[in-house]
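User: Reviewer 2 asked us to show a designed sequence for the structure in our supplementary figure. I'm pasting the structure tokens here. Could you produce the per-position amino acids so we can include them in the response letter?
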């Protein structure tokens, strides 16, 4: 057991579990006291159903929850609502009282849902929380936007604040502030943040600073921090293979974003190499061997044909040099990509169970080379981007996501890989 999520409602427990699952963690939401061996799971998320109950009862429920897993000493995530409803102070105090050495890192933002924190106040879609519809919430009316004030009113511990200026200075500045606050006896630190990049910098600082800390957030910070803390220990049981044949500007940006945001290994195979492989499939072996060497270290491996503009070849010139039409040359390139993919997936020790393919013609060639008759469609990941299972052949049942080369935005490739990783993650199921 690596991470214990304590959420005040089931929706929050599930949401944080889902974010951690996307990072490759084996995550489960617990609806009642768990009698199973907790060490079987990377992440256990507990729902205390304590958002709208009195302060003291919320405190007690969190203490009871902590007692279930304290012997495992996991990273604790005190999941809070993205609009700050609930017994924030009582539940954070319960965690610190249980271990007075711990310091709470409160990163109360969810940028992809337009929840950001500036000057210690929460903005929802650019509007102060108290001026949103949450002001009229029947159970938990939110009439205060300042997270600092909410915690000062609800917690017995002194509150510290790391402003956006410090976050933007980078992880070294954040580490410096955290050390100083901890040495001064601070136990609750509230961060400003406006982007996922801000969250990433805070997570890096928290991971480097070597202080006993726990997460207080709606989920994104927990996912980033846990991913960093356990990256060397955690490996997906099933891996993803990426085959990218498109050379569009959009594809180049998507690849760059994937490399920046996720730990992946992609071999760039230039068109001259692909022509050689299409002519003699044995020439794929060095690339295949390199990829197989990396599969233990990386959860996502694969090939692309372009990462920079200078990698884009002149198909007209290549066709003329090989006495072929552009269509014939293009088909040979796609066949070579399919050949590399097949050799990796067909290897006896391959643990690839998910395939991402960019480019319609590449998809056709890969599916044919794998001996599949097609794929059973299950979902639309994004517009013109589909998920399904291969039907027939040696890779029958493998998960596949495929899209066109000119489809999506800069984040689409990252989204697809996260989606596919979640689909192929190994999950243990409880027996009732």
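Assistant: Here is a per-position design you can include in the supplement:
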């Amino acid at each position: 057991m690596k991470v214990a999520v304590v959420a005040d409602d089931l929706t929050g427990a599930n949401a944080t579990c889902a974010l951690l699952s996307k990072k490759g963690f084996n995550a489960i939401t617990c609806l009642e006291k768990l009698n199973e061996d907790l060490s079987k799971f990377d992440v256990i998320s507990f729902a205390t159903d304590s958002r709208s109950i009195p302060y003291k009862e919320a405190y007690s429920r969190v203490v009871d929850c902590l007692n279930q897993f304290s012997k495992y000493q996991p990273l604790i995530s005190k999941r809070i609502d993205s609009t700050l409803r609930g017994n924030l102070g009582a539940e954070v105090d319960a965690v610190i009282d249980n271990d007075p050495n711990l310091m709470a890192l409160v990163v109360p933002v969810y940028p992809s849902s337009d929840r950001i924190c500036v000057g210690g106040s929460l903005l929802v879609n650019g509007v102060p929380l108290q001026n949103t519809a949450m002001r009229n919430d029947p159970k938990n009316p939110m009439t205060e936007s300042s997270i600092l004030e909410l915690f000062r009113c609800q917690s017995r511990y002194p509150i510290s604040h790391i402003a956006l200026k410090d976050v933007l200075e980078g992880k070294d500045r954040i580490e410096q502030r955290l050390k100083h606050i901890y040495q001064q006896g601070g136990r609750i630190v509230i961060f400003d943040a406006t982007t996922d990049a801000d969250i990433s910098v805070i997570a890096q600082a928290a991971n480097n600073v070597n202080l006993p800390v726990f997460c207080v957030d709606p989920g994104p910070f927990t996912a980033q921090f846990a991913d960093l803390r356990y990256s060397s220990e955690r490996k997906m049981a099933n891996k993803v293979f990426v085959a990218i044949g498109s050379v569009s500007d959009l594809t180049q940006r998507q690849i760059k974003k994937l490399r920046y945001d996720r730990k992946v290994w992609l071999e760039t195979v230039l068109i001259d190499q692909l022509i050689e492989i299409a002519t003699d499939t044995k020439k794929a072996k060095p690339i295949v061997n390199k990829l197989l060497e990396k599969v233990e270290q990386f959860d996502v491996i694969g090939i692309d044909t372009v990462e920079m503009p200078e990698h884009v070849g002149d198909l007209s010139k290549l066709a003329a040099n090989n006495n072929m039409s552009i269509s014939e040359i293009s088909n040979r390139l796609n066949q070579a990509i399919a050949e590399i993919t097949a050799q990796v997936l067909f290897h006896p020790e391959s643990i690839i169970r998910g395939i991402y393919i960019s480019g319609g013609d590449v998809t056709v060639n890969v599916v044919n080379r794998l001996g599949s008759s097609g794929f059973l469609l299950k979902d639309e990941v994004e517009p013109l981007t589909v998920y399904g299972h291969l039907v027939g052949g040696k890779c029958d049942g493998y998960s596949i996501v495929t899209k066109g080369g000119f489809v999506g935005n800069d984040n689409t490739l990252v989204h697809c890989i996260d989606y596919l990783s979640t689909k192929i993650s190994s999950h243990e199921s409880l027996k009732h």
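For the response letter, you might also mention the following. The first helix runs from residue 10 to 22. The radius of gyration is 24 Å.
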